[in-house]
Write a structure and sequence with these properties.
2 copies of one chain form a homodimer.
Chain A (H helix, E strand, L loop, with lengths): L4 H5 L2 H6 L13 H8 L3 E2 L2 E2 L4 E6 L4 E3 L7 E7 L2 E6 L5 E7 L4 E2 L3 H4 L5 E4 L3 E7 H6 L5 H25 L4 H17 L7 E3 L4 H8 L3 H13 L3 E4 L2 E4 L2 H6 L6
Antiparallel strand pairs in A: 1-2, 3-10, 4-9, 5-8, 5-10, 6-7, 6-9, 11-13, 12-13
Helix pairs in contact in A: 3-6, 8-9
Chain A binds a DNA duplex through α9.
Amino acid sequence: MAATPDKQARQRSLQCALGKPAIACEDCGLYHLCLQDAQGRMEGRRIRPPHLETLHAPRGDFLVTAGAPFRYVYAVRTGAMEICLPHEDGPVDVLGFAFPGERLGMEALGLGYYPYAIRALEHTILCAFDLRSLAQGRSGSRRLYAALLRLMSEDFQRLQSSYIALRGLQVMARLSTILLDFAGRIGKVKDTSSQLNLPMTRTELANFLGMAPETLCRALQQLENDRIIRVHGRRIRILDHRRLERLVPRQP
Amino acid sequence: MAATPDKQARQRSLQCALGKPAIACEDCGLYHLCLQDAQGRMEGRRIRPPHLETLHAPRGDFLVTAGAPFRYVYAVRTGAMEICLPHEDGPVDVLGFAFPGERLGMEALGLGYYPYAIRALEHTILCAFDLRSLAQGRSGSRRLYAALLRLMSEDFQRLQSSYIALRGLQVMARLSTILLDFAGRIGKVKDTSSQLNLPMTRTELANFLGMAPETLCRALQQLENDRIIRVHGRRIRILDHRRLERLVPRQP
DNA sequence: CGCCCCTTTGACGCCGTTCAAATCATGTGG
DNA sequence: CCACATGATTTGAACGGCGTCAAAGGGGCG
């Protein structure tokens, strides 16, 4: 079952104490939204908007399920989430991943429900922004709506880009693309962008990339044989950034 | 070069005269937007919102180019458009198609620019809604913004669905999916949903489906050999709707 | 410490791409 | 109105990438 923000909200002050280097508010996908909501309210270096709560999602937990009514938009602070679509007969489609600083659930605002499930790949701390309450209240300003439209467009663009980047490409090109993508996304927070700690299984990553797990394995190994990366289980180090980029075809 | 709405706006009354059965306003993807804008203004059975213009795009014309600054959202009235991403070295990625009643360009609102090009597959009549002007003016009401968010979410959902529907599937499954998809989308306007007049070349359709044109050809022929469809060039008739559906795997 | 799941490796076969060429449609100019 | 040019569509043959099945190693958590 999903952890309810209400229950977790009490632990708010607690989480601030138990460190782990979370990302800064300025690097978060909800930053502009929080600014609108907080109107300058701060606690230390962290914004404190009235509609924001903190919550923990244990590994494997579903943050939202497909079709659930919309209320919150989320942002990952520590950990990693998986966006997926479970089918009744067992298998799932992996649609994407979210790393620290990244936003989740935005497009549910207009639909009124989440069109996918969101699952924690590891123990993950998130911000939950009660957008439904905010939008229903009087506070719905033009600035707020402009911000929402912008955020949604950005997410749209992101989905379309990954759609373009992966379709019709050879296995090795897809893998290179995603490795560089991950490195860039992690690198926004930790500068050690050549060191990746994949939070997902090979099967999940392969599913996302649209290939068999075995194929992913062999592709990884080939990259290792070519001294482009080093693989230790889910720990991957990019040795030759340049040559990895050369495996990615045509960037518009 | 793209036809400018300004130039074409003069022809507005003209187009009403030169029939061709265009779709009704109620079936158009911009209906709710126009309602907001028109506030009940009508001419005959057609809504007449102040921010709406009519324009013609000759076959092959680019309605917008990738990266162009945002101003209009469009809706197809007659004809068909292709959403694509041209690359500098020649080839293009076909991202989708738009048939009568369907909306175009919505996600550019938040970005400020169009993240793709839109090209006319045949001579196409469109509505162009000057959303930038409307959003900049005082008239930006809560209702309007709510409508915009909803439209954008719907487009997001549509993209995600096609993304899911096509990735990782066998050629025959992808083809069946798209044939039924086209039939459904055309069928919303013309009830003869078993008769398709494809406005795009085999190469374009194959590109969209992520396969070689030759492969598309062979798949079409196999469907014809199995008496599931009949093919006359770009004219396709669906003979056995039931068996075609059976070729499409798992719908969530 | 031991179980279970994840990961890796190998062999095989098929589906789809690629290249080449023939046929068909389309529209253009004489 | 016809002949021709141009590009789209179709067909054929051959190669190869990747999915599938099966089984052997890990690595983490109770």
